[in-house]
Description:
Elements: H1 3-10, H2 19-28, H3 32-67, H4 79-117, H5 119-126, H6 130-162, H7 164-170, H8 178-183, H9 187-206, H10 209-228, E1 238-242, E2 252-260, E3 265-267, E4 281-289, H11 294-324
Antiparallel strand pairs: 1-4, 2-3, 2-4
Transmembrane segments: 35-54, 86-112, 133-155, 188-206, 213-230, 299-320
Protein name: ABC transporter permease
Keywords: Membrane, Transmembrane, Transmembrane helix
Amino acid sequence: MSAVTVVSAGAPDRRPVHPDRGLARTVIRPHQSALWFWGLLVALIGGGLLWAAGPGLDAAWTGYLKSGCAETDYCEPGPAYHRYDLLVTLGPAALTVVPALIGAWAGGSLIGRELESGTARLAWTQSVAPAHWLAAKLAVPAALIVSGTVLLTLLNRLVWWREEALRHAVGTRDWFDHTTFTGSGTLATAYALLALAVGVVAGLLLRRSLPALAAGSAGTLALMIALQGYRERLWPVVEAHSATPEPRWTGALIDQGVVTASGDRLSNMLCEQDDCGRGDVVGYWTEYHPSSHFWPLQLVETGIVLAVTGLLVLASFHLLRRRTGGMS
Length: 328
């Protein structure tokens, strides 16, 4: 064996680490506790939903049939149903709360703390360009957030698909309920990414961990409330007409009212009587979203949320460029 061979065999492995891979590890290392929390949250909720879609649903359905609820309007479906109902309620509810937590973490820990402590400045001046640093701060958490929320969304949809008979029998959970609507489609992932962008902007603006934490959470909630307030207007409603006060329709009620002899359409949503005490009512109307509007409403709102997220990401790079003075 030659000397060259011996030296080569004894030399340490100095294979270069890809810079993007090393930067990703640098992003993850200070936030391992948040990563463990996220993984545990996804595992617990995901495991609960898997149980609910299988043995939980079977036990709940068996308990419902044995309780005699099929023959009466009001009854006690049993403890098995209550355990099942708790888990399938918590799943979508968790996905509606997660964005506020992400916004707080992104503002306070991901960005605000590093700017406050000077860690970010040190990285910029030694090895990492500010734009690459911010790109990694956005991309690495986004990949983890998307993988978790997509998994939980798919499990929510599995439960929704499997429980159809029980849901109709008991009369719980409509598709347009807030948590069900958000947690059973593309919106859960879109709002989680929006929260990440809001938190990053808050951190870059405030540069201090605690104020950025509060601003990230509050900003996320404010945007979610504002965007969801227009949900019913994102797709044309269906209108049903009837000669009786109870026209046949199923779905999310938007408005309803009466038609007078003169042809006027008046809303009776706030009236104590169907005809609002008028004597010239000749018909009734109802505006609603049927279940077939679930995906159109989901996709339109998702597109709006992602557009706002994109604008916030652009704003974050603009803020960083102003802060660093174009540092390369």
